């Protein structure tokens, strides 16, 4: 009870401050007046190094071209997530024999298919970046409904499971290190998620979670997993934050799926009043529902999904500084069907797009334009 009371007063305090400060702001203008959410502690005031986080980038966006030598592995479930490890190997998170249908959750977002037990197959698979062959796999008998995968700079693997309502950190070799959220318990306080979709780790180790299908909020945790902020519905009005990516200037960009836009915000310098331009939205008439976002050297690469007849399913290259689309691209052999996630190789040589029906993974080479 005491901790619930604390949570509530903390939430009300943040809400009051946020409302007071931003009552006149409107993200649909693509801009916010004033500074951003209030910080509750000073732990995040780490030293900001210019070298580590260049404020401006002088790079050109790269041009994705389908790699025809790559072959997506066969007999996989829905490939809900893709990431690339520090060696440049793509790693996918797939659903084995499970799908998300009308019986999967009840109206309270509680998972209804526990009786099936966890997915028996390996759900986390490392692929050969040249051929697409499976190099190794793990994560059998653990997950129920995989969603997001992220690999941080140290090679740790972060996963979200929307049935378990949890976020997992594993070492590069697949040893569990941290679990956030309560097993099978949806909720909207700082200890619970509700169908969390995606994780991203800031250069200082802080953990950003997109939570998710029901709560429409972004949560920040310190590197040990202690909750710091919840940036929520009342402020940036997200509608299914589906994927996250982090730019070199530490801004977190969100695939705000049902709002047909990408939102970027600065979770650290916002609190230092350093960035009156954060958050901002990026929109384009061809976007439709943005499912996946990734970035390389300050440019965002995104994929959309089924939206309406006149919106094509494509990839987009986005310049977040000018907030415009520099290229619309896609595979040459066949069109995309249901893309779900996208990830760039840390060396900028390749881009991977996963699909959830047909279940496949595409490789694109990233070429200089
Ligand atoms: C599960 O693993 C078995 C044995 O390796 C394989 O035959 C099957 O295709 C896999 N199924 C899925 C859906 O991943
Ligand atoms: C998962 O797979 C490994 C290797 O294939 C196997 O040794 C282990 O018993 C499996 N785990 C369970 C719980 O079945
Ligand atoms: C993006 O915006 C910048 C600055 O307004 C402009 O110079 C550039 O030509 C634009 N690019 C495209 C592809 O529209």
From TrEMBL:
Gene Ontology cellular component list: extracellular region; membrane
InterPro entries, per database record: 6-blade_b-propeller_TolB-like, NHL_repeat, PHM/PAL
| Cited PROSITE patterns | NHL (PS51125)
Q: Where are the annotated NHL repeats, by residue? A: 192-224
Q: Name any cofactors this protein relies on.
A: Zn(2+)
Q: What is its EC number?
A: 4.3.2.5
Instruction: Give the Gene3D superfamilies listed for this entry.
Output: TolB, C-terminal domain
PANTHER family tied to this protein: PEPTIDYL-ALPHA-HYDROXYGLYCINE ALPHA-AMIDATING LYASE 2, PEPTIDYL-GLYCINE ALPHA-AMIDATING MONOOXYGENASE
Protein name stated in the entry: peptidylamidoglycolate lyase
Q: Which organism is it from?
A: Camponotus floridanus (Florida carpenter ant)
């Amino acid at each position: 009870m005491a901790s619930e009371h604390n949570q509530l007063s903390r939430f009300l305090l943040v809400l009051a401050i946020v409302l007071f400060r931003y009552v006149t702001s409107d993200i649909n203008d693509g801009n916010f007046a004033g500074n951003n959410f209030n910080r509750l502690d000073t732990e995040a005031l780490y030293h900001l190094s210019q070298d580590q986080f260049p404020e401006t980038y002088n790079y050109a966006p790269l041009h994705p071209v389908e790699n025809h030598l790559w072959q997506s592995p066969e007999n996989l479930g829905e490939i809900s997530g893709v990431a690339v490890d520090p060696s440049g190997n793509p790693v996918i998170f797939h659903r084995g024999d499970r799908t998300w249908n009308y019986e999967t959750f009840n109206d309270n977002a509680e998972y209804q298919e526990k009786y099936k037990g966890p997915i028996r197959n390996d759900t986390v698979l490392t692929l050969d970046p040249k051929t697409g062959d499976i190099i190794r796999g793990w994560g059998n008998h653990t997950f129920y409904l995989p969603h997001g995968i992220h690999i941080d700079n140290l090679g740790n693997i972060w996963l979200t499971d929307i049935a378990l309502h949890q976020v997992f950190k594993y070492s590069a070799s697949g040893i569990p290190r941290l679990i956030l959220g309560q097993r099978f318990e949806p909720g909207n306080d700082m200890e619970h998620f509700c169908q969390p979709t995606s994780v991203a780790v800031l250069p200082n180790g802080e953990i950003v979670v997109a939570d998710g299908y029901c709560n429409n909020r972004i949560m920040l945790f310190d590197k040990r997993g202690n909750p710091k902020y919840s940036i929520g519905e009342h402020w940036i009005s997200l509608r299914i934050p589906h994927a996250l990516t982090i730019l070199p200037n530490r801004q977190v960009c969100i695939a705000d799926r049902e709002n047909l836009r990408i939102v970027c915000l600065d979770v650290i310098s916002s609190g230092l009043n350093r960035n009156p331009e954060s958050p901002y939205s990026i929109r384009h008439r061809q976007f439709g529902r943005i499912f996946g976002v990734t970035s390389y050297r300050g440019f965002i690469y995104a994929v959309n999904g089924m939206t309406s007849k006149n919106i094509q399913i494509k990839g987009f290259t986005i310049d977040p500084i000018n907030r415009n689309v520099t290229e619309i691209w896609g595979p040459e052999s066949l069109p995309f069907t249901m893309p779900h996630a996208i990830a760039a190789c840390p060396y900028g040589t390749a881009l991977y797009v996963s699909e959830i029906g047909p279940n496949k993974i595409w490789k694109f080479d990233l070429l200089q334009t």
